[in-house]
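Students often ask what a 'structure token' actually looks like in practice. Rather than answer in the abstract, let us consider DNA repair protein RAD51 homolog 2, a protein of 253 residues. Its sequence is given first.
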Amino acid sequence: MAAKKLRRAGLSQELCERLTHYQITTCQDFLCLSSLELMKVTGQSYYDVQKLLRKVSQACAPKMQTVYGMKLAKSVNPSLAFLPTTLSGLDMVLHGGVPCGSLTEITSPPGCGKTQFCIMLSVLATLPASMGGLDGAVIYIDTESAFSAERLIEMARNRFPTYFDSDEKLLCMTQNIHLYRELTCGSVLKRITSLEEEIISKKVKLIIIDSVASVVRKEFDTKLQGNLAERSNFLARGASVLKYLAEEFSIPV
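Now compare that with the structural description of the same chain:
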């Protein structure tokens, strides 16, 4: 949760703008600085800086939850707890579909249809809740240049011909799917750490990365000394950010 933007930590807009001037935009950026450094960039006293540190720390600390509370929250409206895949057998195994508020990893040998499945999930997430969708936007991070807009439209038309019966509805659906092509580990990490405000402004209900394995394989040869540690560090940092986004906004990732 250290990736949370300072604007959402309760700091004033004026202070956030001042901190942005020094490239301090997240709770992590803020908390990594010493009190002396914060006094310099904020122009505030030691006492006021300590209050800011407590405020930011509380904003990014995970709130305590009981198991009963978590179960109750999902039981109030079970339809909001999952994104159904519309594949009855798979939804049965997953107890309803792809879970909201957590990370889901899809693995298989090459050529088994992982990208096709992700494209279909993108269509499903844009559907209204009455059709089992999430009625929201999608962020699709493509690391293999495998995403096909033509295939997206074809799948939408074939799977839901009654709903997508006009070019207007297809246009609305495609405008709600935001595609980013990130071809390196660094660019993927930079992208996901900057998604928080975009999730809010665009009402994003699903995040897809297709795929993490692709950029990791290209950049890290685990036979070379030191690469295994760097690879593990990248995966841990990425998973931490994605887990925070999934839990903070109750969306499937």
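One point worth highlighting: The first strand starts at residue 82 and ends at 83. Ask yourself how you might have guessed this from the sequence alone, and why that guess would often be unreliable.
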